[in-house]
Specification:
Blueprint lengths: L1 H9 L5 E4 L9 H16 L3 E4 L2 H9 L16 H12 L2 H8 L5 E6 L8 H14 L3 E6 L5 H10 L5 E5 L6 H6 L3 E4 L8 H8 L4 E4 L5 H4 L6 E4 L4 H12 L2 H15 L4 H18 L5
Parallel strand pairs: 1-2, 3-4, 3-6, 4-5, 6-7, 7-8
Helix pairs in contact: 4-9, 6-11, 9-12
């Protein structure tokens, strides 16, 4: 990207920066200094900016971006698809749960790759704490990855009941997993955005996000459609889950709130902001003959 920008500067071609980088994770001092030296001049000279959200916008501003030229461009799925498909599968909820071997009333869902940065051991430890106080709940892990075997061994060693590993799920099948769930959790240690949060909210779920999830700044209204907690703090995560499980009516209202919020982050939102950024490019660039 940096090489492309230098080419654009050399040939007098205007450019727009799209970025999902954010400052939620601490960086080494020397890396920060080097990035400051390299990025500040090229970010300052951009015609407009398309950060994925609030935290990505703050990142660009730190390196010299003009706030007036920032137009949010979040990662987003087909929101309407998840709304319609999850509604359809919700009518078959009991049957789908039976097919998956889930016999508990409430389901906590994780969707994503089974890799270190997703914070899955925090989720399992938190769920273990939940099970000590609330038995009628299952954890459904949809996804595959290099940690699957290690995670399954951890569940067995700690004797954590009602954990279901669904394996890889195709995008077309995902809505049924959201439809049978009651709470969505994304416990990532590092997550620039987290499009699964969009999917879960479009499917009408309340969300619990670690404080390292980039979409938290835009999609989570604390206490309204979900909660956040400090990354890796499994006890705080358990508290958030128990808070929802202990008041299912309020949790359902949170899910409805999620559905309302996410409709403002669809394809048309991105399309309109892209058009605004392009307009700003033509207004601000100093064209040379």
């Amino acid at each position: 990207m940096v090489i492309a920008i230098f080419w654009a500067l050399k040939h007098n071609v205007p450019y727009i920066i799209n970025s999902e980088s954010q400052l939620l994770n601490k960086r080494n001092l020397w890396k920060s200094v080097i990035k400051k030296v390299i990025l500040t001049p090229i970010i300052k000279r951009a015609s407009a900016y398309l950060p994925t959200g609030k935290f990505a916008g703050e990142y660009l501003i730190q390196y010299g971006a003009d706030p007036e030229k920032i137009f949010y461009f979040p990662n987003t799925p087909d929101v309407e698809f998840f709304i319609e498909e999850s509604d359809k599968y919700r009518k078959k909820k009991d049957k789908i749960k039976e097919e998956l071997g889930i016999d508990k009333e409430y389901v906590i869902l994780f969707v994503g790759r089974l890799i270190k940065v997703k914070g899955l051991f925090t989720l399992l430890r938190g769920f273990n704490e939940v099970k000590k106080k609330f038995g009628n709940v299952s954890l459904l892990i949809a996804g595959d990855g290099v940690l699957r075997g290690e995670l399954e061994r951890f569940v067995e060693e700690k004797d954590i009941e009602d954990v279901h590993f669904a394996g890889f799920i195709s995008p077309e099948e995902l809505p049924q997993y959201y439809a049978i769930s009651d709470i969505f959790v994304l416990p990532s240690i590092y997550e620039p955005w987290g499009v699964v949060v969009n999917e879960a909210m479009a499917s009408g779920l309340p969300v619990i996000l670690s404080d390292r999830v980039g979409s938290r700044g835009d999609l989570l209204k604390e206490g309204e459609n979900g909660f956040s907690y400090p990354s890796k703090d499994y006890k705080k995560l358990a508290d958030c889950i128990l808070k929802m499980l202990s008041n299912p009516d309020e949790s359902e209202k949170m899910g409805q709130k999620s559905g309302g919020i996410i409709q403002n982050f669809d394809y048309s939102f991105c399309e309109n902001n892209l058009k605004r950024a392009l307009k700003k490019r033509f207004e601000s660039f100093n064209w040379k003959k």
